[in-house]
Amino acid sequence: MIDRIAILGTGLLGTSAGMALRASGFRGSIVGWNRSPEQAILALQMGAFDSIASDPLEAARASQVVLLCVPIYATLDFMEKLAAVLGPDHLVTDVGSTKRVISEAADRLFNKPDRAAFLPGHPMAGKERGGACLGDANLFRGAVWLFTDDPAAQRSPQSAELVKDWRELVRAMGSKTLDLDPARHDELVAWVSHLPQFTATALSALLEEEVGAAPELKDVGGRALREMTRLGASPFSMWRDIAHTNTEAVERALAALEQRLAHLRENLRNPELRDEFEQANKFRRE
Amino acid sequence: MIDRIAILGTGLLGTSAGMALRASGFRGSIVGWNRSPEQAILALQMGAFDSIASDPLEAARASQVVLLCVPIYATLDFMEKLAAVLGPDHLVTDVGSTKRVISEAADRLFNKPDRAAFLPGHPMAGKERGGACLGDANLFRGAVWLFTDDPAAQRSPQSAELVKDWRELVRAMGSKTLDLDPARHDELVAWVSHLPQFTATALSALLEEEVGAAPELKDVGGRALREMTRLGASPFSMWRDIAHTNTEAVERALAALEQRLAHLRENLRNPELRDEFEQANKFRRE
Questions:
Q1: Which part of chain B has CATH 1.10.3660.10?
Q2: Which of B193, B208, B239 lies at the smallest CB-CB distance from A279?
């Protein structure tokens, strides 16, 4: 049974995971580390863990499960370092928004009988702003926590057990779990997550140019405008890694939306407009 | 002082207006009419008015203020008919989402000393689904209720007084009021209201094609996807008239978004991506 967890990265997701583990009844130890000591202290004060580690690799070695809650390229860096210091009684898992590059690194560096296990994970939960101060024990409740596990992984019995136990902890935090192939994962999230984000970014950037100088006009838009631009507040620091590691799938999704908008624009006075509304209504049928 | 109001059209907005007038303390009579008697009865049961009219023109003549809560072309039809039967002791106002064509009709048909007054109005409030059953006394609370009044209107003293009193009732329902030129109104709402709607429609229609056959995958997107596609449920019946009466402004806004998305797509791995996120962040600065 898991009773020692290290959380590396204590932004919104890392802090929320610690708080959610506690709220779900996890009684073991949780140690946290963050590049910025101030953020680590804040997460500690939010109740995300019991103690702060000064050395992330040391904290990982002392734990059974290492939860990486850092951007994708930082996750890949940690994977290289952790593979060298952990063994078959360890499990490393992550929360990165693209999974193909992470799964490839996991196949290369982990998931062999004499190595630590790696379980690629992706909770479909977040907020448009980051930081420990927004940590939320209920962030994962009702969300889907995706995994792209490798069925061919040859794991030690200890680490295979840890994988099973971690999946149970995820469900205890209130998430449904779903397993996908890594390539299929990246293609799917390009449509249902990355496309909505980049659309909100483009729409917000455009509206800033058009009406940004007149803040009173933003109020005019009301709830619809607020919702359609909420994700405009999302940080580049996180989305850069997503854009870099899922470029082709995001390009395809954006090009498809451009075409769809052009089709709608060309048919504002034609019967085809009805078809578009009816197709959209179908997506939102109860 | 206004003490006899007729609401013609008892969908979401008409029903909500009646309920909001009552909740704000309006003690006069409110009569409602709807093309569908079932919807009128529902609105009556929701407390939107005291009685149902069988003849809308008769109800209008017996009232001081006529609130038109029907789609834009139906509003224009009513304007023709009402101008013929109402006089200088009447005010007609509306809630239509585009104002240029309605303001032109008002100049032609109303707002002369021997005619009824017309005050073009547009509350920036709504829901993605319509109908009396969604009526909400708080729908207009905190919203902006736009007017595109004509400063050159030559109104009878009685109807000028009704215009002043109606603006007070709108504020009593909880809305801020803002006056715009009709052409500026249509240009502004193309950006802050129509563009978000048509973007949500295109995104929802596209996603229905890509992942609609696998409903479990919609859950994966979580809150961000739900928000970005909520307006996908909006009815064509209402948006057709908007597309027809604000075509050029909506075309410009859609073409600008297509360009912005293409720019973002071409720069997923370039520093320009940071600029887009920073520009979007500005729109959402607190």
A1: 184-283
A2: B208
Q: How many residues does chain B have?
A: 286
Q: Where in chain A does DSSP place strands (E)? A: 4-8, 29-33, 51-52, 65-68, 91-94, 117-119, 121-123, 144-147, 176-179
Place of tokens 């910025």: A36
- Amino acid in the structure at residue B47: G
A143 three-class SS:
coil
Any A CB within 8 A of B217 CB: yes
CB contact under 8 A, A201 and B233: no
Q: CB of A95 within 8 A of CB of A123?
A: yes
CB B60 within 8 A of CB B68: no
Going by C-alpha positions, the residue among B98, B55, B105, B100 that lies closest to residue B76 is B105
Please state the ipTM of this predicted complex: 0.91
Task: For chain A, state the CA radius of gyration.
Answer: 21
Q: B31 - beta bridge partners?
A: B6, B51
A165 CB burial (10 A radius; 0-12, 13-18, 19+): middle
The stretches of B110-246 forming alpha helices (DSSP H) are: 157-172, 182-189, 195-211, 215-229, 236-245
Q: Where in chain A is the domain with CATH 3.40.50.720?
A: 4-180
**What are the pLDDT tens digits along chain B (286 aa)?**
899 999 999 999 999 999 999 999 999 999 999 999 999 999 999 999 999 999 999 999 999 999 999 999 999 999 999 999 999 999 999 999 999 999 999 999 999 999 999 999 999 998 878 889 999 999 999 999 999 999 999 999 999 999 999 999 999 999 999 999 999 999 999 999 999 999 999 999 999 999 888 877 777 888 899 999 999 999 999 899 999 999 999 999 999 999 999 999 999 999 999 999 999 999 988 6
* B212 and A282 Cβ atoms separated by less than 8 Å: yes
- Min Cα–Cα distance to chain A from B246, Å: 9
Structural fold of domain B4-180: Rossmann fold (3.40.50)
Q: Which CATH number is associated with domain B184-283?
A: 1.10.3660.10
Among residues 82-101 of chain B, which lie with CB inside 8 Å of chain A? none
Tokens 């996180």 -> residue: A238
